Amino acid sequence: MLQQLAQQLRSPDPEQRKQAINALVELDDPRVLSAMKRLAANDPDPSVREEAEQAERTIQVRQWKQSESDNAAIVAEQQTGIAPSTSADAFAEALNDPAASAEARSELATALERRRSGNKSGALDALARAIEFHPPYRRVPAIRQLARDLTGKVPDEAMALLLSRLESKGADKKKRSDAGGSSSGDASWAVLILELVLLFLVAAGSILILFTLFRQSPELATQLASAPASTRAQFDSIMQASQVTLIPIAAIAGVAIVIGLLLYNLGLHYFSVFVLSGEGDFVSFLNAQLGVDIVSYLLTTVIYALPFLVTRLPANSQKAILSIDQIFVPIASLGVLIASVYYVSKVERFGIMRGIIAVIVAPIAFGILCVCGLFALSFLTAFSRTR
User: Fold this and answer.
1) Closest CA to 111 of 99, 101, 96, 125
2) Nearest one of 38, 65, 63 to 52, comparing CA atoms
C-alpha cells in the first residue's frame, strides 16, 4: 500500500496527490515525514504544499506524543523497577519497525528465539547486536523488559550490562585482530590446507582401493573364466593399461572432487549468510564442513569395499556382514547429515532449524540452478547452430 501511495504522490493531478497525503498520514510510518517535507517545499501546487505542511505538523505532534509516552513509561520503570507488559504485540511492533534495519530486526528475532530455547547467553549477544544496529531499541519498553528478564537486573542496569558486553566483545575482537589475529588466521588456513590435502588423499585413495578390490574379486574371476578367450585377452590388456593410467586418473578425480566440494561449500556458506542471516566466516565454515566430508568419504569407501572384502568368508558370515552393511548405510548417512547440520548451525551462529534448511534446501536450490544453467546453455548452443 505504501508503494502505491508513493506512486500516487507523483500523479500530475493535484487532487490525487492530496488524497495520497491524507492516506499516508494515517499509516503512522516514520518514512512519511520526509516525504511530506519534500512535498511541502517542492510541490508546484500551493494547495498540495499546504496539505503537506499540515500533514507534516500532524506527524510531528503524533511523534512528540509518542516520545512523551515512552519517556513516561521509562521514568515509571526506573521508579518502580517494573517494566510495562511485554506482550507478543509489543515485540511484533519492534520486529516490524520500518525505522530499524533488517539486521537489527533479524538479531531481535534471534534473541527471542534463543530466549525461548533457554540460551540466555546467546540471547544477550543477539540483543546487544540488535541494539548496536538500531540504538533506539534501547528505549523500547518491551526490549528493556527482555533485557531485564535475561540479566535479572533492573532495566537501566540490564541495558548498561548489554552495552558493556558489546564493548568488551568489540575490544576482544580488536585485541585478537591486533595481537593474535594473524597467527589465528594463519592457523585456520593451515588447518584448511591440511584438510584439503587429506580430502584429496581420501578421495583418490578410495578410487584406487575400490578398483583394486574389484579387479581381484572372485565374482569377476568366475565371470572371466566362463568368458571367451578374446574377451579375457581384451580384459587383460585393459587391466595392464589401467595399471599405468589408474594413479593419474585417481589423482585427477581427487582434484575434481576437492574442487567440487569447495564450490558446494562456498555456495552453502553464502546461502547461509545472505538468505539465513548467518555470521560465520568462510575459512571456519570450510574447516568444519571438510571434516564432515572426509568422514563421509571414509564411510562411503568402507560401505562399498565391504562386499568385496567378505567374498572369501563362509556364506553365513558373508550374509550376516552384508546385512549389517545394509543397516549401516542409512545410519551413516543420517549421522553425516546431522553432523553437517550441527556444524553449519554452530559456525553460522543460528538455530538448528535454519541449519536444516541450509543443508537440505541449499543443495536442492543449487541443483535446480545447475539444471537451469545447463538447459540454457544447451538451448543457446542449439540456437547458435541453427543460425
Assistant:
1) 125
2) 38
